## 1
Amino acid sequence: MNGPTPPPGWQPELRTLWEAIMATQAQIDQYAAAVSGYATSVEQATTAIRADIQAIKDANPAVDTAGLEASLARLGTAADGLKALDTENPPATP
């Protein structure tokens, strides 16, 4: 197992508990990394969509894009929320 090890001389039951806790931490670290990846994907998509909306507005100023822009703002808020969750669970340092 990677990472810290229990102190020498621990009883097998305590060692098993330690290993289970550390495995759980590794899973949490994986979830945090996945959340970070999702947030990055959402941010990239939001930037691309924002550019597409601007292109639509430039091509046809009469088109009302307010609803689309409002929905995009909500998506940005969701991405910010994902990033905030990830910063509460930074990856473990070796």
Note: The chain has a mean pLDDT of 79.
## 2
Amino acid sequence: MRRRAGQKALAARPATQASGQQNKTVLVVGAIALILLCICGIVFATLTTRTTDVSGVVQSLAWERTIAIMNSGRDREAWRIKFRPRR
């Protein structure tokens, strides 16, 4: 059985459409991967070039200590130690 040239072209068309769709899918996936790779590169570059060293000059320094003394209500005499001589 002989096929005409037009029949061959019709039979071959679905295969080229499917491979064209696969190429499109591969391009979309590749583009998304490239975009993600660029974002990761930018994040990596930003995090590795960040410095934490800061220099400054001290203008003044003062220390202050405050001790709160609570009143116990006792007389001053109560704080003395009274010794009784031994007999």
Note: The mean pLDDT is 77.
## 3
Amino acid sequence: MAVSHGRAVGVIEAPDGQERVLIVQRSDGRFTYRRQWSIDTVTDDPDSAIGASNVAHDPQGRWGPPGPDCGIYPSAVEAETEAMQRVGLLRAGFH
């Protein structure tokens, strides 16, 4: 899956389908994670880009554009581990 300024190498979706985390390989070869919300989600999260045009990010219109990079990591595993520790939808399943 192509995302702006990088390529998604993993996706972790919330059980309710309203939010997901993209693990992204950036154009510089490093990794990050970005949060993304369903376009019908109401959120006041400052990382949410809901409200911006989502057509380029999801042609089916289900997902809004991804939020900003959340950290920069040397591997996809480290980016995913950090996301699991910091993002609420993932934290509950992280041990």
Note: The two ends are 28 Å apart (CA to CA).
